[in-house]
Write a structure and sequence with these properties.
The chain has twelve helices and no strands. By secondary structure, the protein is mainly α. The longest helix has about 30 residues, at about 5-35. About 40% of the residues are buried.
């Protein structure tokens, strides 16, 4: 049986239209998350769009909204049970991104929603410490963040704050029983790193608190 060209075109369009619609919905969801457009997201969710949709880098809608500080959107996603602790391709969670960017209200919402504060890799507290976000660091510690949890190369929140030059965060971490003797892979302590990057005021604070160098001095005996 011979099939007309018109019929074949009709069939092709019938299959293609749902794909076009899906692509449009996907783009709209990603844009809504980035722009903090709760109304658009609500409408798309009502049509069956998944609120756990991810972009090409594995960022969920919650991560995108948290990263850009859209508290209302974050609240909407949490209330609609978006995955709180999903990770993107870089291993970041929504809480880590919000802590790094200094979005205090977003961090508050994520913590209230039950987001994990302790995890492998750089923790939200380490990110907040490195960026110097004191109030967020306080919130994370109050929520149970381990002040001595280290990344793969040994970076603790204290080491991150010492490298970043944030003396107020260093003071908070020392008061919260941060381990002054912890070292990174190179053998450097927070004191060593503060000295190396010329954060001498932080180095002196750590020294007064009992911190020491992790470097060993070799003595040649003749």
């Amino acid at each position: 049986m011979k099939i007309s060209q018109k019929f074949r075109l009709t069939v092709a369009m019938a299959f293609a239209l749902p794909l076009f619609a899906f692509a449009a919905t996907y783009d709209d969801l990603i844009t809504a998350a980035k722009m903090g457009d709760v109304r658009e997201m609500t409408q798309l969710a009502a049509k069956g769009a998944s609120l756990d949709t991810t972009d090409i880098d594995g960022n969920t809608l919650l991560m995108l909204a948290a990263r850009d500080g859209h508290a209302e959107t974050v609240d909407f996603l949490i209330r609609n049970r978006a995955k709180l602790n999903a990770r993107n391709a870089a291993g970041d969670t929504a809480l880590r991104l919000a802590a790094f960017r200094g979005h205090q209200k977003v961090v508050e919402l994520l913590l209230a929603g039950g987001a994990a504060v302790n995890m492998q890799g750089w923790t939200p507290l380490a990110y907040a410490a490195f960026s110097g976000h004191l109030e967020i660091a306080k919130m994370l510690i109050k929520a149970g963040a381990d002040v001595n949890l280290a990344s793969e190369n040994g970076t603790t929140p204290l080491i991150a704050a010492s490298r970043g030059g944030h003396i107020d965060v260093v003071q908070l971490l020392i008061a919260s029983k941060a381990d002054l003797a912890r070292t990174v892979d190179s053998g450097e302590t927070a004191l060593d790193i503060a000295n190396r990057v010329n954060n001498t005021d932080i180095a002196e604070l750590i020294r007064r608190a009992g911190g020491k160098s992790g470097k060993t001095v070799s003595i040649e005996i003749r």
